[in-house]
Write the C-alpha cells for this entry.
Amino acid sequence: MPAPGPDPLDRPDLPDRSGLRGRSDPLDPAGRTRRPGRTRRPGRPHRPGRPLGAARPTVLALGGYALTRVIGLVVLAIAATASGKDGLHRLKGRWDSVWYVRIAENGYGHETILANGDVHSDLAFFPLFPALERGLSAVLPVDAATAGLVLSWTAGLVAAWGIHKCGEHAFGARAGVLLAVLWGVYPTAFVQSMAYTETLFTALAAWSLYAVLRGRWILAGVLCAAAGLTRPTAAALIAALGITALVLLVRDRRLPWRTVLGVLIAPLGWLGYIVYVGVREGSATAYFEVQAAWGNSIDGGVALARFIAGLPWPAALGLCAALALLGWLVALCVRQRQPLPLLVYTIGVVFVSLVGAAYFGSRPRLMMPAFGLLLPPAVALARLRARTVLPVLAGLAVASAVYGAFTLLGSGPP
C-alpha cells in the first residue's frame, strides 16, 4: 500500500505553538523574549523532504479563503435558482450597495426622507469605496455596481493575505493559514461577497497592522489613513497605532521620527472626511448628526441593552450567551498575549460595534473586521492534524454559506 501523501496543514518544521508563543516581536507589550528558531513537536518523528516554502502558506491561505467564498456563491446560486430570485442582484444592487453606486455615479448630495420624517443622507458613507467604483467603471467595461463587486472580491483576497501575514507573524504559518480561512467562514462572511466596504477596510487594516508589526510605520500610517476614508471603524485602527507608539515611547523613552510620522499620518483620512462633511454642512458636528439621523449615534450600549430587554426571554437568554461568548473570545485574545497593535485594534472594533445605537442585526457584520477574535480558535486548530481540521473547516464553510444564502434571499443584511 503506498505511503500517504504530504499533509499540507501538518508541518513538522513549524514551531510548537502549545505555549501560544510567536516570533520575536519588539512590539510585544510585555517585552518578553520568545524562543528563537523552529522546533518540532515533542514525540513526533521527523519527516524529511517537506520544507515549507515561503510562498506555500500564502497559497494555502488564499486558496482556502477563495474556496470558502466559492462555496458561498455556489450555495447562493442554487438557492436563488430554487426560489426564483436574483442572487447576483442581491450582491451588487441592494441595501448599502445602492448608496455607494449613487455616490460613484453622481457624487454626494442625495437624501431620502422616510415616512416618519427621518432624513437619511449619503454623507453617512465614506468616500474611498465609491471613488474606486467610479475609477474601475471608467477603466473596465462594467457599470459602477459591477465594479463594486470586482473591488470587493479583489479586496477580500488582499484582506485574507494580510490576515494570514498577521497570524503568521504572531503564531506561525499554520495558524496564519487557518486564521485566513476562518475569516472566510465567519457567520456573516456572505458580506465579503457583496459590494460592501468590509473587505476593503479589512484589507487596509490588516496590512496596516502588519506594517506596524514589521516596524514600517510610515506605510502603516498611509494604509490607516486610507482605511479612515473607508469606514468610521478606522477609529479603532488609529487607536491601535497611537497606543502602540505610546507604549514604545514609555518603554524606550524615545520614538524614531518614522514612528512619529506614521502616527501623525494615520488619522488624516478619517479626520479629513469628518472635516469635509462639517464644512459642507456648516457645522463641526455635521457628520455625527448625519449618523444620528441614520440611528447610528453613540449611546454607550443603551440601545443594545434596551433591545435585549425587549426580547422574549429565550431569545434574550440566547443573545446574552452570545455576548458572553464574545467576551470570552476577547479574554482569550488577551491571554494569548497577541501583539499589542492587533489586540488594541480587535478590542477597539468590538467596542465601537457595541456602543452605537445601530440596529442590532448589523453588529456581527460591523465586528467582522476584528479578525483577531479568530486567533484563539485558529491557534487551537493549528494543534490538530489535517484530517481533523479539514472536516471542521468544511462544515463551517457550508454552514456559513447556507446562512448567507438564507439571509441574502430573505430580509438581507441590515
